[in-house]
């Protein structure tokens, strides 16, 4: 059994970790860490766990708590994980960080987009970007895994095979993505209150959303050539789900089957990637509550552009599910252990 602790267990991503890990055959949750609810029963914070989880939220010194576990998930705000990582801690535990602290390799890019000083830059190089479908081998060996962002997961998985095969103009990538409100976390903010979100759709972070450099960096590795993109996120009145629609210019003439083959070959060993049948396009409701990413595309013959649609559940493949998939790789478990859940419908 792998003993785990969850920091940020009272947030949306932390709670989703608890829900999924309860179902994992190889995991024992040792503690649920919180700053705001120390001493309170977890099932009081989330009534859904009444008679299921009898733990009380713990606080205190992470280094001390780390002695009780093998792995820590940090489902915490930006800047937290980089503040606790040190060599002593890493001798004790592995870390899967759900924040962006270790996702971006260039520290100046991190500072520019996050407006934060990085607290442990010496560990950025060794941290592995935890997109399992792309970095599986490195994740197996990692001590620190930087779990990808939610929009970035949906966007990178949709575009990676295309940039790798160089069948598109790398300067032409436009991603238009929509997210449910749980993507913004459980902390209150005016922008996320019911009346602000309900019956409304809005674009935000236009030209400057912090997932832009993360997508660019990973696609650049895939293409082995510098990529810059346009990325526009939208907030929609839904609890969960991300739908990303990407537009790219094709370099030459391709048939549906040519492109389908590129996707199918690239993802042939990937349990959670579903390339849908021709004419069927991803919908958030078909992946809700699951770790699947659904992808499909259509060629616009008039403009010779390819339109690629991808859908994930932001809290599962976009956060907690992917974090568990990473942990499974780090411990040599079946990659899908604890995650073989069918989507919830409706
Ligand atoms: N929501 C999503 O869809 C996704 C989220 N992420 C990332 O996952 C992380 C968690 O996100 P999410 O669950 O949405 O956020 P929430 O705001 O819902 O939860 C954040 C958690 O962190 C704890 N926390 C807050 N401040 C601190 C601190 N200074 N030190 C330690 N713990 C703190 C909070 O609870 P308490 O006060 O009880 O400690 C809370 O449990 C973030 O980095 C986010 O960017 C990544 C992908 C998708
Ligand atoms: C709807 C919404 O607000 N979504 C969040 C992204 C959540 C996520 O993936 O965050 P990290 O990269 O910070 O981990 C946002 O746009 O900031």
UniProtKB/TrEMBL annotation:
Q: What does the record give as the active site? A: 150
Biological processes annotated in GO:
L-arginine biosynthetic process
Tell me, in a sentence or two, what this protein's role is.
Catalyzes the NADPH-dependent reduction of N-acetyl-5-glutamyl phosphate to yield N-acetyl-L-glutamate 5-semialdehyde.
Q: Which InterPro entries match?
A: AGPR, AGPR_AS, AGPR_dimerisation_dom, AGPR_type-1, NAD(P)-bd_dom_sf, Semialdehyde_DH_NAD-bd
Q: Which GO terms describe its molecular function?
A: N-acetyl-gamma-glutamyl-phosphate reductase activity; NAD binding; NADP+ binding
**Semialdehyde dehydrogenase NAD-binding domain boundaries:** 3-142
* Chief localisation class: cytoplasm
Entries under CDD domains matching the protein: AGPR_1_C, AGPR_1_N
Protein's UniProt name: N-acetyl-gamma-glutamyl-phosphate reductase
Q: Quote the catalytic activity from the record.
A: N-acetyl-L-glutamate 5-semialdehyde + phosphate + NADP(+) = N-acetyl-L-glutamyl 5-phosphate + NADPH + H(+)
What lineage is on file? Bacteria, Bacillati, Bacillota, Tissierellia, Tissierellales
Q: What is its EC number?
A: 1.2.1.38
Pathway noted in the entry: Amino-acid biosynthesis; L-arginine biosynthesis; N(2)-acetyl-L-ornithine from L-glutamate: step 3/4
Which HAMAP family is this protein grouped with? ArgC_type1
A cellular-component GO term for this protein = cytoplasm
Write down the top EC class of this protein.
oxidoreductase
Give UniProt keywords alphabetically: Amino-acid biosynthesis, Arginine biosynthesis, Cytoplasm, NADP, Oxidoreductase
């Amino acid at each position: 059994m792998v003993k785990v602790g969850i920091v940020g267990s009272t947030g949306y991503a932390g709670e989703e970790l608890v829900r999924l890990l309860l179902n994992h055959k190889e995991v024992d949750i040792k503690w649920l860490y919180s700053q705001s609810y120390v001493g309170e029963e977890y099932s009081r914070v989330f009534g859904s766990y009444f008679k299921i989880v009898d733990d009380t939220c713990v606080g205190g010194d992470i280094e001390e708590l780390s002695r009780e576990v093998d792995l820590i998930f940090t489902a915490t705000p930006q800047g937290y994980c980089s503040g606790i990582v040190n060599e002593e801690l890493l001798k004790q535990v592995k870390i899967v960080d759900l924040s962006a602290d270790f996702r971006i390799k260039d520290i100046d890019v991190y500072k520019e987009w996050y407006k934060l000083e990085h607290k442990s830059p010496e560990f950025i190089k060794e941290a592995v970007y935890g997109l399992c479908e792309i970095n599986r081998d490195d994740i197996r060996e990692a001590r620190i895994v930087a779990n990808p962002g939610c929009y970035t997961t949906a966007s990178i998985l949709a575009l990676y095979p295309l940039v790798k095969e160089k069948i598109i103009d790398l300067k032409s990538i436009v991603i238009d993505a929509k997210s449910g409100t749980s993507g913004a976390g459980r902390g209150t903010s005016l922008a996320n209150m019911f009346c602000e979100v309900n019956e409304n759709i809005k674009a935000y972070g236009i030209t400057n959303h912090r997932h832009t450099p993360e997508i660019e960096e990973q696609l650049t590795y895939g293409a082995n050539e510098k990529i810059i993109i346009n990325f526009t996120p939208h907030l929609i009145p839904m609890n969960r789900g991300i739908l990303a629609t990407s537009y790219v210019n094709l370099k030459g003439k391709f048939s549906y089957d040519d492109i389908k083959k590129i996707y199918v070959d690239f993802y042939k060993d990937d349990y959670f990637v579903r390339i849908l049948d021709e004419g069927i396009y991803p919908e958030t409701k078909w992946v809700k509550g699951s770790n699947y990413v659904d992808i499909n595309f259509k060629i616009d013959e008039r403009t010779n552009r390819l339109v690629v649609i991808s859908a994930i559940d932001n809290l599962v493949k976009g956060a907690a599910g992917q974090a568990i998939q990473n942990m499974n790789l780090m411990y040599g478990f079946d990659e899908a252990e604890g995650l073989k859940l069918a989507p919830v419908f409706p």
